[in-house]
Write a structure and sequence with these properties.
about 290 residues, 3 domains, elongated, Arc Repressor Mutant, subunit A, D-Maltodextrin-Binding Protein, domain 2, alpha/beta, 11 strands, about 45% helix, two-stranded antiparallel sheet, about 25% strand, 7-stranded mixed beta sheet
Length: about 290
């Protein structure tokens, strides 16, 4: 007995329509009809009365419905148990340090609740480094700033705005308007030399023929953020890495005149052909549904 035919039968029963069942199963209406007809032929019974767009169960269809539910439930439980037994015992995630600190903590508790026997390993690095680790299958998947590669499947996760942040007692906050020319006078902390963020910010200054006062360059956002809090300078930082500091009022966002809008795309990446991974499918369903 074909389990897909059983599933189609149950969906038609529950939704009362071949069209609605087709939509729920991401199939065409003729495909659902063909599955029901195949099931009826196999069992040699008529399951539905069809009256135009309306369908209703026959007596034999009514009798079969609860048994069909048990069959599908047993199949799904068995499939789940078998997948659990075949699961790798370790999940390796590659991402930037700021994502590990600020994004993963909200993602992983539900995963751990469902896969409690799976050990997790988080490997941090720059986006290009994480991309290479995904390609080399040193990690199962990565969460990085947008990088493209022919071996990689990439799904947009969210847009991460970049804004100018200063410490809560900075003199710049007292000025009524804050222009790029004024910003250029203050010590600027740059992070992640050569990254897309770095290039965006440099381009903003260069296109306005302004030379920024770069006092410090560091290799990660966390260091830049903490230096800003300590009053060592000001910095353009991604919003995701300063949420806690904004809530605690340790950092303040500065709106420039005219406004400057910058966004970095954060993507979920994995090697093409590995989309059947239980782990990858789990996160794809939760993150992008």
């Amino acid at each position: 007995m074909n389990i897909d035919n059983i599933e189609a039968f149950i969906y038609v029963c529950q939704l009362g329509s071949f069209n609605k069942a087709a939509e729920a199963l991401f199939l065409t209406q003729p495909s659902v009809s063909a599955r029901i007809q195949s099931l009826e032929r196999e069992m040699n019974i008529k399951l539905f009365f069809r009256q135009g767009n309306k369908v209703s169960l026959t007596d034999k269809g009514e009798y079969f419905f609860p048994h069909a539910q048990k069959i599908l439930q047993s199949y799904q439980e068995a499939k789940y148990r078998l997948q659990q037994e075949l699961l790798p015992n370790e999940l390796k995630i590659g991402c930037a340090l700021s994502i590990a600190n600020n994004v993963l903590p909200s993602m992983l508790p539900d995963f751990k609740a469902e896969f409690n026997n799976v050990r997790m390993k988080i490997i941090t690095g720059h986006s290009k480094d994480v991309l290479q680790k995904v390609i080399n299958q040193e990690v199962d998947f990565g969460i990085i700033r947008r990088e493209t590669h022919p071996e990689i499947e990439s799904i947009h996760l969210y847009d991460d705005p970049i804004s100018l942040f200063v410490s809560n007692d900075h003199v710049l906050l007292k000025q009524e308007t804050k222009t790029l020319e004024q910003v250029a006078k203050w010590p600027l902390i740059f992070f992640d030399y050569g990254s897309m963020d770095w290039l965006y910010i440099h381009r903003i200054f260069s296109t306005n023929s302004i030379s920024p006062n770069i006092s410090l360059e560091v290799d990660n956002m966390e260091t830049a953020k903490n230096l800003v809090i300590q009053g060592m300078g000001i910095s353009f930082l991604p919003e995701h890495c300063v949420k806690k500091e904004l809530q605690k009022e340790q950092l303040v966002r500065v709106e420039l005149t005219p406004p400057i809008r910058m966004n970095i795309s954060i993507d979920f990446i994995y090697v093409k052909g590995s989309s059947q991974s239980v782990f990858i499918n789990y996160f794809k369903e939760r993150l992008f549904s």
